[in-house]
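Minimal example, chain plus calcium ion.
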Amino acid sequence: MTRHVEHFLLFHYDTFMRRRIRPGQVETGMSLLEVLVSAFIISILSVSVFQGLTTLEMESRMAKDRMGASLLAADLREEILSKPSLDPDGRPVLGREPDESGTNRMSYDDQDDYAGLIDRPASDIGGNPLSGMERIRREIKVESVSPENPAGPPGLPSPYGLRRFTVSVYHQNTELAHLTWLSIGQPR
Ligand SMILES: [Ca+2]
Ligand SMILES: [Ca+2]
């Protein structure tokens, strides 16, 4: 309910309640009609307050979800940065090397092994789902970019040169947070 409608109701309620009393007449209380009008106006105002609280609660929950999602993105970034930028086995590719598992993050031995990973539901490095995050997923994108324009369109995937990492956190189809950083890949 808009503030204009509230003012309208309160104004007419106030006008209605100011009954004209003739000189010498004693006002004995509220009539049935006045009670009904009062109850109606109070119910309308109660709905307005309830709607306001519901909106506030939803906004607060959304802010809390976005903060949690930001922490999940930062957590995965820390995990990726804990890996070496160079694959120790040689013959690197951007993404997982041919002999590496597709799902076991414990086996990832360089940062770009995370390319294309969809972490659903959000899990720790051992594959154990994080408590309360069953409906959250994280997606990791790794792109080769030019040092002259690192925010620009990606080039051909390569384990060499500059790479742009992006971690996005979703609840169903809604992106709650994303985190982007640059990292130097394999030396040529
Ligand atoms: Ca690797
Ligand atoms: Ca790799």
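The first strand starts at residue 118 and ends at 119. The CA atoms of residues 60 and 109 lie 40 Å apart.
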